[in-house]
Structure to design on (1612 residues):
């Protein structure tokens, strides 16, 4: 036991890496066992699954990361989903009309995402309405705009020249790595990241120390907009088209991507938020793909939804109570000590 | 100081947003009204018709263009379009609001219910529905003098289209495996129910199958189901909402079993599934034939012009709704009822509310698609159901019109007749 | 040779108002090199406001300032820091989730920029130097600040402030959070600076401390400078009078020696908490003011919380004797006639956004009910009585509490418990951050409660008030009672301090 | 204070500039209470003018009330939850499931009270489950809501199965409707909420807990108990709303209640309630907000605004009203939600 603890102390990095890798690996293993035993299929059945996994991974990774930009600072931006729609539909179609291909779609969507995000940020720092409430209003407006744009057709990527690259595995890996590098830099090593962390701790102190919290918030929103736009493009590449929604339905994208974010932030305690969220997204994607295999034995997508969200619930129960176990242990030790002291005193008194 | 400036900027900005929004709607609103009064050829009361929409897709966009740009000015009526109505309660709210705005009739693309008919009845408003009578027995049996009937696709014909195509494109023994996406049929989506049923009937006729369960029950299944049949053919029903993030992985997972070479969809999903189908084809080296519902659009053009890894178009067969014909028929039913001939023009021979059926068009090759160029083109304003066609359906221009004559007219619509009409 | 006595900062006719409230009204004063100037005054007198204006935290509404002979109008803290004005603030000034080094260089990360990234190593090295400069070596600047306690974090702030070699150091009520060793560090730094021909401004409520450490005292009252006093003329009674605006007698504590009854009302029987306390015993008698004193981390605050059921008692029990109930949580305590005033007034004792009315009414929902419903008339009388009795300064009872001054806030806290008419009151630092005038009123109130037959536990870090008020005084050290003293025997502060450390 | 008046104050300090005057007015407690009412009245006036008086017709105003009932009932209930700083957006799914089981129970037995009892009972049960997750398992209510929304609506879909809707006999729904059940139940519930909220111990406690939980606990209030009460009060409202929605269209469908959580949040905020509760909360904000939304929807349609724009305009008006009615913070507002 002590040897093991000693080893753990010595190889912190190794242990942290193992922890980070272990979670998605465990999810995969569990799904693989379940899938193979019930349907005879593997979770990763063919190259198609790998492509799907990677595309969905980069999509959910970017979206969760985008959410985290603001969420970590106590700003739950309910409009990120509508920013995604706006950015992809306006930017993507602009790129397509200029015949810029997949890369163009990606770049233009990102740019539009930054504009969309920055506008929300601008309103936020000026109106100072609670982010969640602001998000509600913004999503109404953004949804309306993205719906009316492009003749209500949304963004259609299937069969468009040059968009095949968005399904190219190497390209996807490249983009994922690039985003990881950029975001790690932004979050962890850049002046922006340092300031952001300070604001995350205490915005008043940060403000008093001369950090411009307003510019920082604006940048956070801008980065979030860019990230969800990337997420939207890859999602569209998978689903072929992005159909505009109304009635605050874009919120559901936000909510469903909170799962990878929650897992990611939990994993992040042993690494950093970027790697954590990647591992978190990977875990969730394994779960979704694994569940999809049950379609073969007649499980409806409602059932799959049920299971996916139940897993989320169980995870949250664990996450919010993991420290309780230690607490109970400590408490037991303390009670024992108290009993001993009491006995000792009684002995002395006697 | 700086703060005040920022605050002012914020205020101005919000104001500007507000103004833009209002200006936007103002111009569009007045534009359509101005157009209608200028072009109105008939005198008398200008009817106001509320249109309750369930979705916001290109069919709805086309319909709005058809009604607003063509019907409204030509026949001196005015339309109020709904937002996307989530459920029946929303439809009810919309109808009430229309009545308060002075609407004379409601065309309902969302619900198909006696409740709405009753509401319209109480307020003296004509009620027209897109859908099938079987779904609403109350409406059929009840006393609704102002209910002008149902319009929708002719399912027998649709089944024929599928059957014919299946006849030609499937093997004799049916060994290729059929994956049928019933989409939202399990949640009551009328179109998805109709098409799913047509597909199952088509397969039944082609192979002379006996299903162990009645087709009526099968289309409503809410989980992936292998249809048990006497010939042991692999027919799998896959229900679910394409908007759910578990839907597409499910399709992908099924296709990856390699057992399906025929993918038939009751919804407009050929576009959404294209990437998945392509990737499975490439990875497994098989050719999956795709049949789906579609509407005239650039998406459809792309689908037929994009080749899959086997050199075929990425979609093999689509049935297209000549949407202006549907729109013309709901309008005609409503308009005739408003003009007081509901008993002749909107009732069948038994005196029951009429059931107007139009025929879908099938397209199975880029060549056939090319023929349909310019049909129901909202931008060009070239409609299949043009003035001449609609005139034949209205009592004001054709006093002898009956439900039967309208149905006859619509039954005559096929690719060739349209081509002739469109010149 | 450093030059002393030169004017370093001049404040001329400075006004500051927050909306309708006037915080500073035409303030003039100078800070000279080589001096330690104390700012003293009641809460809300404008001490912190004027110093934060000098340090660039907020702009003045009108008036001028000069620094080193040039006009001084800092736009933010960074500018002030760069120009050599550093300030250690009253509230916690470190951010828990970032490293000590980042805290020290908060807002000035730019200087560690190496290309596009921030050089963490260089920052940590510099931070270590900064800490060493003030003689602190046990803090690792690479670790997150949350690993350190209040006192160590205050030292981090001092290091941060001193790193820039300020010409003027402003210490705003920092010493209350520090133990003696921490105070010694800060006093040393202050005197070193003064000796080196720089200047120090210190703000504190502790009159003794101020008189000991400062060369000059500036007394403020209601945003107006009342007087500047040189060390030679320091006279505590005179200063107090100037602060409050009326005469305060040398002794505002109780003078009687009435005893208390033998009846035990509250008994802690061998209680153990997760931290601090192990098999702790305590008995509170009827009509007794029981004082608990000690260093801030001796466990006395935990005792207060544990007695009221706020701290989990893992072994042993707290029992209210006459009702024979075991206090398991705060609800039980409240329902059985106990009351608790926390030392963290703003975060624990008040709902800042709610009105005075709602805060006071919060203890009386049951008492003011008729059947299941709250009777608005009864409730109104309940609140009005306290607002009047305590002379809470407010426009009306519906004013949010957050707009009140510290003393008035504390009056509201007392008001809600007076109204509640609790039999047992636990007061944790009841006069912390309260000016002398209100303090006197609080003491009177506590004494009145005793006379009404209530039992009071008074926990405080200030020995004089404990000695002045308590019938019995317990001194704690390391979670244990290290000494017990009685009013009737007389207290001797030297002995008390011996038992504390 | 004597010192203040004795200090020589210049004219500038005695007279406030316009911005400060606005702030004084805005910080008046009556302003905050009156603002949502004033805005509702203003909206009705504007639309009345724009429609040439048509908007003032009794039938129109009655229609607004009738359309606001479902959201209004839910919002009134949910304001209890918001009051002590919790958020729940799962009420749409709860309503759907309550209505479904109610209809199933009714159709199986043909006993009308059973429809109401089961709907309300199921809603109470589900809300209690949400609450347990948050009180016992310490998960933030918003997270619980996001998760259970999906689970509940998936279960509802599976329960309904078949054609996606289940009808109930029109006679039953019209009997309830004509018997005035809707209005009686709604106003009964609304008054109950007002009384509980403003005139009982638990209502006061809720608001106090929302403002400062630590302080409230030290004043003998139990956060867990209050949270349960708030969720159960909301559950009661949602259950009634479920019945309303069933008798509204004589059916329950898989779409019943979808997106309601967000609509309710929108209405509550529009009614002048702080989403994070505390001292500014009240029980009538939900109803006022729901009426405002209903009036806006009807008015925009009657004025002839194209449907595609209605949503965007609603968003802009929403933001503008919330901006005017909220206190401006010195720094950026934030709150840990996850």
């Amino acid at each position: 036991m002590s040897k093991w603890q000693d080893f753990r102390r010595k190889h912190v990095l190794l242990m942290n890496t193992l922890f980070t890798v272990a979670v998605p690996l465990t999810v995969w293993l569990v799904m693989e066992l379940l899938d193979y035993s019930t349907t005879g299929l593997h979770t990763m059945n063919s190259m198609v699954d790998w492509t799907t996994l990677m595309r969905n991974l980069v999509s959910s990774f970017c979206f969760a990361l985008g959410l985290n930009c603001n969420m970590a600072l106590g700003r739950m931006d309910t409009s990120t989903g509508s920013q995604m729609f706006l950015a992809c539909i306006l930017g993507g179609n602009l790129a397509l009309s200029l015949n810029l291909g997949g890369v163009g779609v990606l770049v233009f969507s990102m740019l539009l995402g930054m504009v969309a995000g920055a506008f929300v940020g601008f309103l936020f720092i000026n109106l100072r309405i609670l982010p969640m409430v602001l998000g509600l209003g913004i999503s109404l407006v953004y949804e309306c705009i993205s719906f009316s744009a492009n003749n209500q057709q949304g963004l259609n990527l299937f069969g468009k020249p040059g968009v095949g690259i968005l399904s190219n595995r190497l390209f996807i890996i490249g983009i994922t790595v690039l985003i990881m590098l950029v975001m790690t830099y932004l979050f962890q090593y850049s002046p922006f990241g340092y300031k952001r962390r300070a604001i995350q701790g205490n915005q008043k102190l940060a403000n008093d120390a001369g950090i411009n919290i307003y510019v920082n918030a604006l940048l956070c929103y801008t980065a979030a907009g860019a990230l969800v736009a990337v997420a939207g493009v890859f999602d569209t590449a998978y689903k072929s088209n992005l159909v505009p929604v109304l009635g605050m339905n874009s919120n559901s994208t936000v909510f469903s991507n909170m799962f990878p974010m929650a897992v990611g932030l939990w994993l992040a305690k042993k690494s950093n938020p970027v790697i954590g969220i990647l591992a978190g997204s990977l875990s969730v994607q394994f779960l979704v793909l694994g569940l999809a295999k049950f379609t073969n034995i007649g499980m409806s997508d409602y059932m799959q939804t049920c299971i996916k969200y139940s897993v989320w619930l169980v995870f949250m129960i664990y996450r919010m109570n993991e420290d309780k176990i230690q607490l109970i242990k400590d408490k037991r030790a303390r009670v024992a000590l108290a009993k001993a002291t009491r006995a000792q005193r009684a002995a002395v008194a006697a | 100081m700086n703060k005040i400036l920022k605050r002012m900027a914020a205020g101005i900005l919000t104001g500007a947003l507000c103004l833009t929004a209002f200006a936007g709607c103002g111009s569009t609103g007045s534009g359509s009204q101005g157009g209608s009064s200028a072009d109105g050829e008939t005198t008398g009361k200008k009817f106001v018709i509320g249109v309750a929409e369930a979705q916001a897709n290109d069919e709805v966009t086309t319909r709005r263009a058809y009604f607003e740009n063509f019907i409204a000015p030509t026949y001196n009526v005015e339309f109020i379009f709904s937002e996307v109505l989530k459920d029946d309660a929303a439809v009810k709210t919309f109808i009430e609001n229309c009545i308060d705005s002075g609407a004379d009739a409601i065309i309902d693309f969302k619900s198909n219910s006696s409740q709405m008919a009753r509401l319209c009845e109480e307020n003296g408003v004509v009620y027209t529905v897109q859908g099938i009578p079987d779904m609403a027995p109350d409406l059929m049996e009840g006393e609704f003098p102002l209910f002008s009937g149902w319009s929708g696709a002719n399912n027998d014909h649709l089944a024929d289209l599928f059957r014919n195509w299946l006849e030609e494109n499937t093997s004799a023994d049916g060994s290729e495996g059929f994956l049928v996406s019933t989409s939202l049929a399990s949640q009551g989506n009328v179109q998805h129910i109709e098409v799913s049923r047509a597909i199952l009937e088509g397969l039944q006729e082609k192979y002379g199958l006996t299903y162990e369960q009645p087709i009526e029950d099968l289309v409503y299944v809410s989980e992936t189901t292998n249809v048990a049949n006497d010939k042991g053919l692999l027919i799998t029903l896959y229900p679910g909402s394409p908007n759910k993030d578990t839907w597409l992985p499910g399709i992908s997972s099924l296709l990856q079993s390699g057992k399906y070479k025929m993918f038939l969809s009751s919804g407009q999903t050929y576009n959404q599934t294209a990437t998945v189908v392509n990737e499975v084809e490439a990875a497994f080296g098989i050719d999956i034939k795709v049949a789906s519902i579609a509407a005239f659009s650039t998406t459809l053009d792309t689908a037929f012009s994009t080749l899959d890894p086997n050199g075929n178009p990425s979609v093999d067969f689509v049935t297209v709704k000549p949407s202006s014909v549907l729109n013309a028929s709901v309008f005609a039913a409503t308009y005739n009822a408003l003009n007081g001939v509901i008993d002749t023009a909107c009732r069948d021979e038994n005196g029951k509310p009429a059931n107007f059926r139009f025929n879908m068009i099938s397209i199975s090759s880029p060549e056939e698609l090319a023929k349909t160029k310019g049909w129901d083109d909202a931008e060009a304003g070239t409609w299949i159901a043009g003035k001449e066609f609609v005139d034949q359906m209205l009592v004001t221009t054709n006093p002898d019109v009956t439900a039967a004559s309208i149905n006859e007219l619509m039954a005559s619509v096929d690719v060739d007749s349209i081509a002739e009409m469109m010149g | 040779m450093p030059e002393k006595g030169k004017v370093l900062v001049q404040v001329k006719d400075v006004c500051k108002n927050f909306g309708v409230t006037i915080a500073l009204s035409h303030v003039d004063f100078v800070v000279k090199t080589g001096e330690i100037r104390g700012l003293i005054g009641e809460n809300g007198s404008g001490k912190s406001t004027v110093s934060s204006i000098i340090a660039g935290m907020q702009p003045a509404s009108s008036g001028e300032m000069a620094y080193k002979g040039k006009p001084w109008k800092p736009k933010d803290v960074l500018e002030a820091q760069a120009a050599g004005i550093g300030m250690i603030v009253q509230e916690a000034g470190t951010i828990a989730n970032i490293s000590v080094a980042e805290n020290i260089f908060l807002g000035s990360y730019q200087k560690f920029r190496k290309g596009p990234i921030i050089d963490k190593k260089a920052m940590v090295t510099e931070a270590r130097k900064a800490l060493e400069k003030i003689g602190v070596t046990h803090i690792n600047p690479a670790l997150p600040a949350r690993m350190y306690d209040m006192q160590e974090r205050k030292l981090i702030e001092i290091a941060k402030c001193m790193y820039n070699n300020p010409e003027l150091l402003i210490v705003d009520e920092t010493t209350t959070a520090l133990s003696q060793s921490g105070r010694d560090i800060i006093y040393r730094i202050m005197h070193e600076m003064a000796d080196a021909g720089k200047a120090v401004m210190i703000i504190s409520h502790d009159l003794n401390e101020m008189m000991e450490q400062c060369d000059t005292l500036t007394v403020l009252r209601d945003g107006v400078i009342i007087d500047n006093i040189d060390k030679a003329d320091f006279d505590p009674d005179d200063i107090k009078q100037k602060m409050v605006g009326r005469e305060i007698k040398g002794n505002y504590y109780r003078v009687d020696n009435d005893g208390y009854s033998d009846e035990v009302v509250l008994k802690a029987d061998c209680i153990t908490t997760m931290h601090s306390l192990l098999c702790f015993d305590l008995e509170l008698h009827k009509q007794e003011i029981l004082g608990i004193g000690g260093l801030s981390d001796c466990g006395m605050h935990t005792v207060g919380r544990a007695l009221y059921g706020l701290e989990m008692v893992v072994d042993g029990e707290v029992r209210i004797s006459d009702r024979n109930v075991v206090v398991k949580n705060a609800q039980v305590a409240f329902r059985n006639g106990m009351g608790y005033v926390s030392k963290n007034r703003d975060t624990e004792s008040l709902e800042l956004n709610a009105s005075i009315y709602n805060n006071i009414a919060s203890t009386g929902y049951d008492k003011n009910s008729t059947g299941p419903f709250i009777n608005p008339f009864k409730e109104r009388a309940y609140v009005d009585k306290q607002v009047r009795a305590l002379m809470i300064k407010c426009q009306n009872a519906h004013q949010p509490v957050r707009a009140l001054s510290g003393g008035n806030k504390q009056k509201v806290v007392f008001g809600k418990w007076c109204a509640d008419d609790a039999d047992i009151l636990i007061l944790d630092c009841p006069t912390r951050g309260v000016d002398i005038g209100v303090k006197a009123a609080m003491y009177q109130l506590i004494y009145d409660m005793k006379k009404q037959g209530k039992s009071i536990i008074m926990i405080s870090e200030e020995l004089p008030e404990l000695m002045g008020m308590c019938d019995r005084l317990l001194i704690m050290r390391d979670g244990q009672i290290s000494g017990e003293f009685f009013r009737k025997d007389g207290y001797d502060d030297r002995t008390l301090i011996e038992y504390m450390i | 204070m004597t010192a203040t008046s004795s200090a020589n104050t210049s004219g500038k300090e005695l007279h406030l500039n316009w911005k400060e005057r606005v702030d004084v007015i805005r910080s008046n407690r009556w302003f905050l209470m009156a603002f949502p009412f004033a805005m509702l009245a203003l909206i009705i006036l504007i639309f009345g003018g724009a429609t040439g008086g048509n908007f003032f017709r009794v039938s129109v105003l009655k229609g607004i009330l009738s359309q606001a009932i479902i959201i209004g009932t839910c919002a009134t209930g949910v304001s209890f939850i918001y009051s002590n700083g919790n958020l729940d957006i799962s009420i749409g799914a709860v309503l759907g499931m309550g209505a479904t089981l109610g209809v199933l129970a009714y159709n199986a037995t043909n006993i009308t009270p059973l429809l109401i009892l089961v709907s309300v009972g199921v809603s109470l049960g589900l809300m209690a489950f949400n609450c347990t997750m948050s009180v016992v398992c310490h998960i933030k209510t918003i997270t619980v809501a996001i998760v259970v929304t999906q689970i509940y609506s998936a279960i509802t879909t599976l329960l309904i199965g078949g054609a996606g809707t289940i009808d109930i006999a029109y006679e039953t729904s019209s009997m309830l409707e004509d018997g005035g059940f809707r209005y009686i139940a709604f106003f009964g519930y609304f008054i109950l909420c007002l009384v509980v909220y403003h005139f009982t111990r638990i209502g006061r406690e809720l608001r106090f807990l929302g403002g400062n939980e630590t302080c409230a606990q030290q004043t003998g209030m139990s956060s867990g108990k209050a949270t349960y009460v708030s969720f159960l009060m909301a559950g009661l409202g949602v259950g009634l709303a479920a019945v309303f929605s069933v008798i509204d269209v004589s059916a329950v469908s898989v779409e019943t209640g979808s997106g309601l959580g967000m609509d309710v949040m929108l209405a509550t905020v529009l009614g002048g309630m702080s989403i994070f509760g505390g001292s500014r909360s009240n029980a009538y904000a939900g109803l006022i907000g729901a009426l405002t939304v209903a009036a806006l929807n009807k008015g925009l349609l009657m004025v002839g605004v194209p449907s595609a724009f209605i949503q965007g305009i609603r968003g802009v008006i929403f933001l503008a009203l919330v901006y005017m009615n909220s206190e401006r913070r010195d720094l950026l507002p934030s709150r840990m939600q996850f």
